[in-house]
Amino acid sequence: KNSGVPQGTLIRRHRIPKPAPNDDEYYTAEDFNIGCEINLYSKVFKLTNADDFTKNFLRKMGVRVNDIENKPENPYTKYRKAMDESMQPLRPYEKHDTLKQFLDHDRHVLRFFCYWDDTDNMFGDPREMVLHYFLADDTIEIREVIPANSGRDAAPMFLRRGKLPKNIESLRQPGEITDRTVLNVFGPTGHGGRYILDSLKTGAVNTDFYRDSDLTLGAVINVWGRKLLICDADEFTKEYYHTKYGIENFSSVQYKKNQAGNPPRQFPPYNGWGSEEDSLCSCMGLLPKPPKRDFIKFMEKDRRGLDSNVLRFLARMNTTKPIDQERRFIISYYLSDDTISVFEPPVRNSGIIGGKFLERSRIKKPNQQPYSTDMSQYYLSNDLFVGACVNFNSHIFVLIDADEYAFRYMEQNPGYSKANINAILQKLVSAVGSNQDEIRSFFMKNDPNGLGCLGYDQLVSLLRQVDPNISDQEIMTVARHYSQRTQEDAIDSQKLVAIVQEQLRKRNYEGFGKLLEDCMQNDKDKQGLLDGEIVRTIFRAHNVPLPDDLLRAALSMSVATEKGEVAYKNLISQMNWRDCPVPPMQYEPSSDPNWVGTQQGKGSVSMINYQNLLDDCFGKGKSSS
What we know:
Elements lengths: L36 E4 L2 E4 L5 H9 L14 H12 L12 H7 L3 E9 L8 E9 L4 E7 L13 E4 L19 E5 L7 E4 L22 E4 L2 E8 L1 H10 L31 H7 L12 H7 L8 E8 L4 H4 L2 E7 L4 E6 L10 E7 L27 E4 L2 E8 L1 H9 L8 H12 L3 H10 L7 E3 H11 L5 H10 L11 H14 L5 H11 L6 E3 H10 L6 H10 L7 E3 H8 L31 E3 H9 L1 H5 L1
Antiparallel strand pairs: 1-2, 3-4, 3-10, 4-5, 5-6, 7-8, 9-10, 11-12, 11-16, 12-13, 13-14, 15-16, 17-20, 18-19
């Protein structure tokens, strides 16, 4: 500065030859090193220092880099520097240029999530805030997060945008806080006026404002007397602090207490008027409403044709009275509304009048407080199974048998654990443990002919030894699943056709043509085969007067494929008592309305295929050995 020496680019970029007598050569990188003198067009330059890249480059080339040399001082430059430092400028040279900061950080806002605990004051609550720090001009605004139904007005701003001082001071007069202090003004007002600024800043007001370096996670800031805890920040803010200040840990501050949730609603106890559901609905609102029934369940589980959706069990009374011990009862469970009815079949010369023993209704389980705030528990379908002991209004019943529909319904629905064959087998396998050889030897001892079959009574004694707590329902489920039909038990096909024709002849049913047309219409592939359930549905739609068990037997007789498809043409042809008559035969249905049960474990199941039972429990390889 003010040296009078030309500066800037003295020699443009090009290859420079060495001085004579080596003017046929050019300077290369090997000619440069600290402390060397080079002659460039008769100008001698001495190299005193180099940057790090140059030093590393020379070392890689094998050049030993010399030590740094000091530059000689210029007496005149030293004199001018001392003169400049001693001079006091009449006007300040401090620049207040905020344009660069505005252009670099416009629309860059740091967002912090804050917490203000105002519970020490009357009617104070913990309140959540969002603090915005604008990097363009270092100003701060605070907005309050108002939850729904808090009772507070939704004010748009908690603290308007501006610089936030760290310490609370008294209110300043207008014009007291300025960027520069003006000492005096003279001359005309406006253009042409003159003023002198205070370069020493003797009357300047020093106010410390919050900067971005003061806002960190876990810090407490003073917002005009309110202590705000900075708990968290957004991703842009975290990236900004990581880039500028090198902060790595951004663990958020937990300020919310673990709330236990909404407390359960307290209802008054049952007062005895109406049902418990009706009384509970009256407590739900100001206007009493009747309880809503499960209409979907009612439509799905209501009686449809011969599908009654009623589980019937045979029961005896658990009592010490000899007369009551011989009484038998039919317990009917209605799946549509979970109601139960008890009927006692009349017995001649018993001295007891039979008939309806218990009206159809929902029955509460015993040992419950009568007038409680909790809903009473009622008997459900899972509570009824063969071997169960139930208490119906202080009358104790033991279920000893069930009809075929109840057995089949519970076995087809996995929700009934006592009739789930997979759950029962797992229970038996866990009970047997390492005693598999003893189980096999027991089966072999009771099967001297090696037929792979076992009697029902022998199976019961074995299962009782394996698991003393096994129920009668589980034993009967295993026996039914692995039952072995013998030739004596199997119904001859000719006898079955004769029985079916006799039933249709008595009812004078002759709609075989329409029955065949409907089956052919449902046969999309025109192969003469239909699924057994589809054929059964068609027969029920045409009101074919056959009991359910007889119809199932006829369908199983006509099964033609492994998928259970029925040859419907052959089936309808055999049923046609007009065109294909056979000698008549009488039939007694097994599930008539007067069903009163059978002896437990006898009649339907006589022999059990224990070989298949061992295969499913322990595997084929082990059981065959």
